[in-house]
Amino acid sequence: MDILSEYWDQLISAFWMTIKLTALSAVGALVLGTILAAMRVSPIPVARWIGTAYVTIFRNTPLTLIIIFCSFGLYQTMGVSLAPENSPTFLVDNNIRLAILGLSVYTAAFVCESLRAGINTVHVGQAEAGRSLGLTFAQNLRLIVLPQAFRSVIAPLGSVLIALTKNSTIASVIGVAEASLLMKSMIENEAAIFVVGGIFALGFVILTLPMGLLFGYLGKRLEVAR
Amino acid sequence: MRAEPTLLYDVPGPKARNLYRLLSVAVAVALGVIGYLVYRALDSKGQLTSEKWSPFTESTSWTTYLLPGIRGTLIAAALSIVLALILGAVLGIARLSDHRVIRSAAGFFVELFRAIPVLILMIFAYQLFADYQVFKAKYLALAAVVTGLTLYNGSVIAEIVRAGIKSLPKGQTEAAKALGMRKSMIMRTILLPQAVTAMLPALISQMVVALKDSALGYLIGYVEVVRSGQQLGSFYGNYLPALLVVAAIMIVLNSALTLLATRVEKRLRTGRRGRAAVVPTAVPVTAVPGMDLTGNEPEVRG
Q: The ABC transmembrane type-1 domain covers which part of the protein (chain A) (predicted)?
């Protein structure tokens, strides 16, 4: 218990960073994933190809590689920086934002696939009715199909979010101070690996378990009755 | 897949076809502009010179860096896939046990290891093995990677196995019982062989996850393909090309496995239907193939 009180502040800030990474990447991935899903079902062949290529590339590349690329490739080689260069916390901020970028582009591929599966579950008659009312492709997607598709993919999107929470630990590869980085230093410095391991295991169970329950409940609650 | 476009838009007439063509050109032009900007940026940073890319045409950079890395990735992935299959089969069957203690113990194990990030498992296993000197120092990182991947993927596979067995019609068990078979015999000779058919696609996409996740070994110092690419990059001073090449290698490896998965699935869907006595409904590859299955999402559709 000494460990817990000694490291309490660090634990809180590390897990808060995990939550921040997850939340911000989730927003980014949702936006990008929705656009990609729209492209993949659009009538324009070139847009469909781009969507397919994106999903194939990012789904098959390890996240570790993507995040390392964001740091080594984008920042160090290409000089892309996502934070004001002259601020005192430039390196920290920049790494956090690069990690969020990496997590977002990776997760977007999975969001896109979930959404596309969801669009396929919407009854054909819905879109047909929309079309016969004279709605264009964009209107049809926005007003008729996507609202129903989103409701049917709440549970799958929930598991994507849980996976994202767990994947955010990989941000430690470019030195973002989140849970796994703290765990690494704690487990090396303290002679109590089972206590340290237990703390972090419990931390992630606390983060992911309610998420799973909530999304399961929401998925059932908001299911489109057919 | 092909029926899907007609859901959202009509078969295009001449006007719409022209419009689509126009939009196609517009998107292609936008893509070209982005491509050109990326090219300009790369060029201005000197990333397209032959010095940056020539290391990949020399055999030494492959034999010293990339090939050992690929071997590391494949060894870790293969070991953890085999071990995870064994662990998954044991846990999955244990979750269907008649004894409540075994059932809930297996359930707890499965839920726990699906909730913990693989990286956390690896860091823990690494320190555990180091403290108690379970493995030689040389194999420490490999052992930690394999342990982490096995525990996580084994738990996911346990859920797949459970869903596969539950998807079989009840009559199979009942008929076997009526013939006087013991529980273990029913499982071994009746249920498992049939369930494997339903599980195979989901199992193979879990193997893709294991292969991809072996890159996590980077963080605990295991030499796999990402690490070797990064070392190559620092040796030749060409991080960006090196990482792109590694990405291409991983995409090829994973696509090959995915292709195998779709092949197998197709064969099982079409080929077996005529002959097999029972066709179990395919186990849903929960929502997103390739993504880690997590939480309490995989609902067993029996």
A: 15-215
